[in-house]
Amino acid sequence: MLDKYDVIVVGAGHAGSEAAAAAANLGSKTLLITMDMGRIAQMSCNPAMGGVAKGQIVREIDALGGLSGIVSDKSAIQFRMLNLSKGPAMWSPRTQNDRQLFNIEWRKQLEAIENLDFWQDTATRILTEGDKVTGVETGMGIKVYSKTVILTSGTFLNGLIHIGDKNFGGGRAGEKASHGITECLNELGFESGRMKTGTPPRVDGRTLDYSVMEEQLGDEDVTSFSHLDAHKLTNQRSCFITYTNPKVHELLKEGFDRSPMFNGKIDSIGPRYCPSVEEKINRFADKERHQIFVEPEGWDTVEIYVNGFSTSLPEEVQLKALRAVVGFEKVKMFRPGYAIEYDYFPPTQLSHTLETKIVKGLFFAGQINGTTGYEEAACQGLMAGINADALANGKEKFTLSRDQAYIGVLIDDLITKGTEEPYRMFTSRAEYRILLRQDNADIRLTPIGHKIGLASDDRMRLLNEKLRGTNEVLAYLKKTSAEPRLYNGHLSDVGSAELKQKVKLHALLSRPQVNINAIIDRDNGLKDIVETYNGLGRDIKIQAEITIKYEGYISKEKEMADKMNKLDQYKVPRDIEYMKFSSLSMEARLKLSKVKPINLGQANRISGVSPADISVLMVYLNK
């Protein structure tokens, strides 16, 4: 009944949506199979995109030609740039989103893609012939054939939901779990494991007292995720902050004997950096309070997401404890929080393209690889979609290195080190984070995305205009001098030494206390240049200022990246029998045999492989 496809994507969450869009936009005949067409790219946890390191990933997805940034901008109800008090490597965009609008916008984007078909059903089996994938079989008994398959199953594989003493099958609240895929993959030789994540209760915003909470406003200077389709907010909804207290903690502890986290019903590992509220008060017993973010679910709903109160305690315990939180004294609950256990597949079974090593043409993306978070899932989906299209159509493989993108860091971490707990991206995971800023994602990646055919001509036009403007500003700053009489008053006010003679504006801007706006206010020539570029003026100013202030740091990181990349030039044959190397440590032999690195650079990043082991390999390769 269904046609044969180049790419089949199983699952329409954040990973599946990006994968399907990428493959179809690149020309592959693509089928997206989802259990529910009404829940495409559902925000199953908090209604927000971006944040620390995650915002950089959304910008990177957008720069390559993905859709998460555009959808996030169009469904945003608040925008904030986090960490502005720190250096630019830490600046991270974040949107609060309308949950329903996010889902609607994603469906609109996908339905507008010509090469993309949809099928509402459950995939229950992967079809193979020898060591190659040939398609999938669905719950209706339909076999659909394709050159490649991308699995993006989220938390649905044998999903089990826990609320207090109760547990029941489910991939998400109100949705059934998916069965058959794990068993099929195990038969094919894949190793699987179990992970856990959770979500907080949703409550009725009409029953909260916001007057006793801290209001968290959006930015006045609103920007956007997307470099292409800037959709800036003119109106924003506030979030609010409140806190737990000792009484809340005592009430929660009353339910610990019925908590699946503590009574042995859940033995899988949850996200260390996003623990449940019961884990927080147990692990940090010395803390008298923990922060709770009160986040609206959208423009036209009273539903509130209680961020920071993730829990799987019995529902009556959840409600009782919530009512002891300041501002929540009269709260009514729409639905309780819960924990969910699900199957995942250790990502060391994948190559850098996210294709599996065991079955050719089969790709994994998202939580099936042990990650947590919409952004981490979406970028994997994008990369899997690009590479599935490449494999199906005889194109070159597409990968990103650790000095090119946070996406490159994430994928290299997963396939090289694996993960035994839900993996979340942080700026600290990237050794080249001054190079991988959110403001230069388009400079780093749009030319690459354009070359493979995913980033549009319009994106390249905007990028070239931004680069031209930045270079024009930098040239002006290097050739123009600052008059002491125009700047000394300001320099005195900001605590910087006054000028005794003329200096180039470039040198003046390199001072930590001086920003480019202070120079523009006093120099009409520079002001005219920036205003020439209209909507790109802000980006041009930021780019020029960072280039000048962080020139030395950027140069050092590039030098370090070039040095480390030399190890990547030493290709390692996949058929090396490491167990025969008596000069390698036993741990190195075991780890190298499992990961099968493609080059010395990847081998060097495997935990347990020492510099001495790398030297042994280098000698062998030189021979």
How are the elements arranged and paired?
Blueprint: E1 5-10, H1 14-25, E2 30-34, E3 48-50, H2 54-64, H3 68-74, E4 76-82, E5 92-97, H4 99-111, E6 116-120, E7 123-129, E8 132-138, E9 143-151, E10 160-163, E11 166-169, H5 181-187, E12 193-199, E13 202-204, E14 214-216, E15 239-243, H6 246-253, H7 277-283, E16 291-296, E17 303-307, H8 315-322, E18 333-335, E19 338-344, E20 362-364, H9 374-392, H10 406-417, H11 441-452, H12 457-479, E21 481-482, H13 484-493, E22 503-504, H14 505-509, H15 516-520, H16 524-532, H17 537-549, H18 551-568, H19 586-595, H20 600-604, H21 611-622
Parallel strand pairs: 1-2, 1-9, 2-6, 9-20
Antiparallel strand pairs: 3-5, 4-5, 7-8, 8-9, 10-11, 10-19, 12-19, 13-17, 13-18, 14-15, 15-16, 16-17, 21-22
